[in-house]
Amino acid sequence: MHSNLTYDVKVAAVESKDSEDSDHDEIERREARDKWASQIEYLLSMIGFCVALGNVWRFPYICQRNGGGAFLIPFIVCLVLCGLPLVFLEVALGQFSGMGPSHVWSLCPLMKGFNVTTDQFNKTHSINAPYSNITTYSVEDSNIEYRTAAEEFWQYKALGISKGIDDTGSIKWEMALCLLASWFLIFICVVKGVRSVGKAVYVTATLPYVILIVLLIRGLTLPGGTDGAIFYITPNFSKLLEIQVWLEACLQVFYSLGPAWGCIITMSSYTKFHTNCLRNAILSTFVCEGTSMFAGLVVFTILGYMSHEANVPITEVVSSGPGLGFVIYPEALAHLPLPQLWSVIFFVMIILLAMDSLFSQVETFMTAILDEYPKLVKWRIPINAVYCLVSFLVGLVMTTESGVYVFQLLDWYIVAIFITFAALLECIMVSWLYGIDRFSDDIELMIGRPAPLFFKITWCYITPAMLLTTLVFTFLQYEPPKYGQYVYPYYTTVIGWIIASIPMMPVVMMMAVAVYRGKGGLFQRAKMSLKPDVSWGPSEPSYRAEYIKKHRKPSTLRNAFKSSLSYRA
Fold it and tell me: Whole-angstrom distance between the N-terminal and C-terminal Cα of the chain?
């Protein structure tokens, strides 16, 4: 007992000295970071990141597959109990620390490998994204007889898919040029970080809404359009008894909101310390998912028209699959005045939706580098150029005739498994290891009041339970990857699981490093690695000294439990 007390006193003294030595450098680093020019730019960037092609093509596809309006009920439940709490958690973390993911997780050094994994995941996804957003998704069911001209063109002309992943084929120069143009536009928009991104989003984040409104109006005026809208909003309550519907609702929240990717933390780290992070999280979440439901309504009005024209049920009017959005929307454009003009505007919208999300992912990667090595800030433009060039070169594999199979393999294993696990780990770290009581204090320091009881309960219990359930059922219902009617060879399954395990390697490695670098016995080292290191603290310099003094002793599980059920911090 005496030796432990002596050790703790020594550790406190060392920490005090380390804190004083590092405070000056830490304050300089945080003050040197850019800030959003206005709250509008920040909110538009958040909305631009969350509102991507997943809202336009994946949500209507999932909604159709799960009984139309019935899917909206589990989707809204998962959004409120899982998506919104995770967004608020990440917005608060980024704003409080004023640092990107590479430094935020210094609140729990044992889990610091999580930020390495996040950066690695964003790098992988950004390499795939320009190609996948524009060209990868095809219609899946080849047994349905009714095919529109748009569907024929998309499947057989635009994609030109090979017979399988083994049949690589040649690089399609049209796709390669699209990929090059995508990365060039991204480089231009992120060249100066948040200063240039903040200006670009005024166009990229708002124009898609104008086009969607026009398409909805036109869809409702077409024969059968209102029938499609009614089908969309009419729930089939029997679907609510199927666990698969709830699982897909939870996964769709991740597809659309993008928690646990590090991008929300990065964008929030550039906001001012006393910004109302609760308000921003709620606005961003509901605007994003409201867009998903609105885009679904647009799609179903056109489905109703196509059903009327083909004289078949809405559920059979078009082959299901993520390509739904790229088949339905062109059908709508063909019935507008000056269809060629609207086709150009529509595909500009598609590009803008993709670019918005990529802005945040590229900026997350750049922020991780520049936060770790601040002296490289003057080399931001060359580093950006190299990053975009390497991403283009690596992404060329996706532009081959078998590129869609490669993308599907990565998407099958990384997104559905890693993102869910990462979000679960995030909740546990903040709520129980860092302490929900301390995190609530941090929020009160920023907005003048502690975290609402609803969020404390969801962070500690409901959200982790939902994430764990989703993860377990994902494994239980695992099926080998497939693309439409194509079944992947067995060896690709092995490769897929290796790919899925790679993001977890840095977490395990950094755990070992954190314990190894500690002082004392193994137990003491593990205990110290669960405490925030000296770099953790509020981004506002005037609060740092008082904050470090107040929170010198770590939170306990008992305090976290009490706080999770209390209105006060």
Answer: 31
* Residue 372 near residue 26 (C-beta atoms within 8 A): no
Q: Length of the chain, please?
A: 569
Among 15, 533, 60, which residue's Cα sits nearest to residue 327?
Answer: 60
| Phi-psi map region of 320: left, alpha, beta (phi>0 left; psi -120 to 50 alpha) | beta
Task: Identify the CA nearest to 103 among candidates 560, 542, 534.
Answer: 534
Nearest to 415 by CA among 119, 124, 33, 112: 124
DSSP-derived 3-state class of residue 482: strand
Residue 106, CB half-sphere, CA atoms under 13 Å: how many?
Answer: 18
DSSP state of 486: E
For residue 569, being part of any structural domain is answered with no
Phi, psi of 487 (to 5 degrees): -105, 130
CA distance 527 to 467: 26
Q: Are 409 and 481 in contact (CB under 8 A)?
A: yes
Total structural domains within the chain: 1
pLDDT in tens, 65-111: 787 778 888 999 999 999 999 999 999 999 999 888 877 878 888 77
Query: How far from chain centre, in Å, is Cα 261?
Result: 5
Which CATH number goes with the domain that contains 127?
1.20.1740.10
- DSSP letters, 361-372, are HHHHHHHHHHHH
Q: Where are the alpha helices (DSSP H) in 396-504?
A: 403-410, 420-428, 436-447, 453-457, 463-476, 490-501
| 545 is a domain residue | yes
Q: Is residue 305 part of a domain?
A: yes
pTM of the model: 0.85
DSSP H or E stretch at residue 483: strand 482-483
Instruction: For residue 148, give the nearest of 404, 401, 329, 313 by alpha carbon.
Output: 329
> Which DSSP letter does residue 455 get?
H
CA distance 537 to 551: 10
- Closest CA relative to residue 91, chosen from 292, 262, 251, 256: 262
Bridge partners (DSSP) listed for residue 292: none
- Retrieve residue 498's tokens: 């290796």
Residue 62 is which amino acid?
I
Residue 431: domain span: 2-564
Stated as kind and residue range, the H or E segment containing 522 is helix 522-528
Least confident stretch, 5-14, 97-106, 272-281: 5-14
